[in-house]
Amino acid sequence: MKQNSEKTLPGLAEIGLGLEDLIRRGARVVIQQAVEAELAQLLEQYENVKTLVGQRAVVRNGYLPEREVLTAVGPVPVQVPKVRDRSGSGVKFNSALLPPYVRRSARISAALPWLYLKGISTGDMSEALKVLVGEDAKGLSPNVVSRLKVQWAAEHASWNKRDLSTARYVYWWVDGIHTGLRAEGSEGQCLLVIIGVTPEGRKERVAIDDGLRESKESWQALLLDLKARGLQHGPLLAVGDGAMGFWAALEEVFPATRTQRCWFHKMGNVLNALPKSQQARAKADLQAIWMAATREEALSAFTWFVDSWCAKYPKAVEKIEKDRDSLLAFYDFPAEHWAHIRTTNPIE
């Protein structure tokens, strides 16, 4: 299949983007929406103020040059709009949100992906906006926040019902994302996330929804919803770890999709079954498999690992041997994609 894949798969320009890159892209939209909502409130405040010839005195007047603001996901480019005051009374637009300055912390870095994805799944980005820009978000008036919530809810409803009849995906990265942030009654809840790459090379969100312990039933409901909205085919390859109910659900909903188990998770599972004194050597032997230049070399390294470790540590060997085919599936796709499709790093 490798030769066919190389002929049919284009260079996927965004295949290397991670979840934080997608969040940074989304952060730009969220911050821009908040600034535009602030401006809309200012224009409403002065909508009855007229010039001597009956024109509105305070009107939009383009944008300031694009600049970067520092957020919890790094620099984000933003355009701040300007107003023109024809009455000469000096009305200006000053955003309460910008310019923010946020010091990154471990808590912010850990919380933002959850809050952002949770916002996508519920249609309310308020908490994510607060984490993105810190204390400056408190400067937004209740009217602006209310306006934003209405806008976000409408966008969420539209995205969650979007037609997928023309959607096609080459790869999916799939994971259940958990966080230490917990609301009352949320025990066992996680976010089910699918990130996909289209044949044109664009990486995008496919689905984000609440799930219970990454169960088959939760994943099946999500996949069936995609299918009900017109998605005719699953991706060529789905990448994920082995602990999810996703695989059983995928087999029932999109059985033609091939599966790739995440090497990062698999190595962790295997090494945890070995004494610490043996882990460094075993890790090198495992890396020799997935870093091999060809499938043949990988199979040879795989056999070496099994033969070398099965006598003393059969449980560790069993963990890798049972998933041999799905661990080596990436070799059937273009070599320039291997680094991205043998792990779930784009979501991690």
Q: Into how many domains do the coordinates divide?
A: 3
Distance between the termini: 28 Å
Poorly predicted parts:
1-8, 100-109
Order of helices and strands: HHEEEEHHHEEEHEHEHHHHHH
Task: Provide a concise account of the structure shown.
The protein has helices at 2-8, 19-45, 106-122, 126-133, 142-160, 216-228, 246-253, 263-272, 276-290, 295-309, 314-321, 324-327, 338-341, and strands at 58-63, 67-71, 74-78, 81-85, 171-177, 189-197, 203-212, 237-240, 258-261.
Structure write-up:
By secondary structure, this protein is of the alpha/beta class. It folds into 3 domains: 19-160, no CATH class; 164-261, Nucleotidyltransferase, domain 5 (2-Layer Sandwich), CATH 3.30.420; 263-341, no CATH class. It has helices spanning 2-8, 19-45, 106-122, 126-133, 142-160, 216-228, 246-253, 263-272, 276-290, 295-309, 314-321, 324-327, 338-341; strands spanning 58-63, 67-71, 74-78, 81-85, 171-177, 189-197, 203-212, 237-240, 258-261. It has a 5-stranded mixed beta sheet, with helices on both faces. Helix 2 crosses helix 5 (142-160). It is elongated. The protein starts with a helix and ends in a 7-residue tail after the last helix.
